[in-house]
Specification:
4-stranded antiparallel sheet; alpha+beta; single chain; 4 strands; 326 residues; Alpha-Beta Plaits; elongated
Length: 326
């Protein structure tokens, strides 16, 4: 039944919707509890919370600006509203430049994330976690950074692996990563750094130049958080990671079998065994890291006496095929 086009697309979209919901819940949990606890009017010093990059960080900056201008809107309400609103133009870009299914499921993810961030402010258990962490000593911030990075990093990377995103800077990073066929994390670094520095500057203004040391320490923790998220995302999201497979075999036509089963070409060099002096063929093939096991299994099935090595690559230049995002 899965071969039926309608059924296949329906199951694929249903799985995508489930992943979007799960990652939205994970993202909202990390954001609300560990990144920007939405517990107002209990802290005497601004700048005591981790600042995110991307759209979440921009939402934090907007809330700070509104507060400096006399606004009294709840941080959880404003963050959830702006997190959704700022993502609309970005997801329109994704719809036309990346893929329709990618954009639709990313929109679902963003909408649910906004809803969950707002909902968690009304859940006593979540509220208590946020309050406890926001009033914890600085020595606890390293654990807070770790949990935040793991929660949000896992949300982004799981979404990426299923050709979805958590919106915001993730979409822009994903687009350039696809264009350059490289890792996702590094493209968000510059913009995120600007957001962090802006948040730091607003903190200094609000505190009238006092408590700079506290704000600066939390700025460093925020940078540590961003780099930790980047490492988690690049470690789990293997879409653009490539490896070179070297196969030493006595089967002359093994390249034809590999090309028939994978959308990559091969290079074959004739050689001779150093011990046996038998004729050998050395086949080179570059594949995505997710394809390695299938390639090796196929090679070992054809020639159980083959010798296979796998080498990680930093980058590959040329016509390397990667399945387009839907």
């Amino acid at each position: 039944m899965y071969d039926h086009i309608g059924l296949r697309e329906g199951l694929s979209f249903s799985l995508g919707a489930f992943v979007a919901t799960f990652t939205a819940l994970l993202y909202a949990f990390g954001f609300y509890c560990f990144v920007a606890p939405a517990v107002e009017n209990h802290a005497t010093i601004w700048g005591s919370s981790i600042t995110t990059g991307g759209v979440g960080g921009i939402s934090q900056v907007i809330w700070m600006i509104s507060t400096l201008c006399g606004g009294t809107v709840s941080i959880s309400t404003l963050q959830s509203i702006f997190y959704f609103a700022l993502n609309i133009p970005i997801l329109l870009f994704a719809y036309f430049k990346i893929g329709k299914k990618f954009a639709i499921l990313s929109l679902l993810n963003v909408g649910l994330s906004s809803l969950f961030i707002w909902a968690f402010s009304n859940v006593g258990f979540m509220h208590d976690i946020a309050y406890t962490l926001d009033n914890a000593e600085t020595s606890y911030h390293s654990a807070r950074v770790l949990f935040a990075a793991v929660s949000i990093g896992l949300a982004s990377s799981i979404a990426f692996r299923n050709e979805i995103s958590c919106g915001g800077i993730d979409v822009i990073s994903y687009y350039f990563a696809l264009r350059k066929s490289t890792s996702v994390g590094k493209y968000a670094t510059t913009l995120n750094s600007i957001i962090l520095l802006t948040y730091f500057g607003l903190t200094i203004i609000h505190n009238h130049g006092q408590h700079v040391d506290i704000a600066f320490v939390n700025l460093l923790f925020s940078f540590l958080y961003l780099f930790s998220v980047m490492l988690v995302v690049d470690f789990i999201n293997t879409r653009n990671k490539k490896v070179q497979i070297q196969i030493i075999t006595s089967i002359k036509d093994i390249s034809s079998v590999l090309i028939a089963n994978f959308p990559h070409s091969t290079t074959t060099v004739e050689g001779k065994g150093g011990y046996s002096h038998a004729d050998k063929y050395v086949v080179y093939m570059v594949v995505s890291s997710s394809e390695v096991k299938r390639v090796v299994d196929l090679v070992r099935k054809i020639d159980q006496h083959s010798f296979v090595t796998v080498t990680s690559l930093i980058q590959a230049y040329g016509n390397f095929f990667i399945k387009p995002v839907e």
